[in-house]
Amino acid sequence: MTPFTEKVMDIIKGIPKGKVMTYGQIAQLAGSPRAARQVVRILHSMSKKHRLPWHRVINAKGQIALQNEELFNEQWVFLENEGVEIGVGGTIDLQKYQWRG
Fold it and tell me: Which domains does the chain have, with CATH numbers?
């Protein structure tokens, strides 16, 4: 496992309930500001195995970015269960819910 991957996983594990971070924000904190897509790949391949709270990661627009309807709805429910208010189209108020670490 690369140091970048380890940092990304640690950052994601540190997002508290009821808060979110963006893919780009995580990439920047992990030391590679242009690696947002790599964060997506890490989440996709390692969330289950490492029990990452994948649902707390959203895009830079403050939206749930999943195209798969089932996973989109699952992320929505997980976030709502943690107290995150979600608007039309899966939009989340980053001013209110973004974790700055």
Answer: 3-97 (1.10.10.10)
Q: At 95, which amino acid appears?
A: Q
User: How far apart are the C-alpha atoms of 85 and 91, rounded to whole Å?
Assistant: 9
Q: Taking the complete model, does pTM exceed 0.85, yes or no? A: yes
Two tokens at 100?
Answer: 């700055």
Interhelix angle for 36-50 vs 3-13, to 10°?
A: 70
pLDDT tens profile 14-68:
999 999 999 999 999 999 999 999 999 999 999 999 999 999 999 999 999 988 9
Give the whole-angstrom CA distance, residue 57 versus residue 42: 12
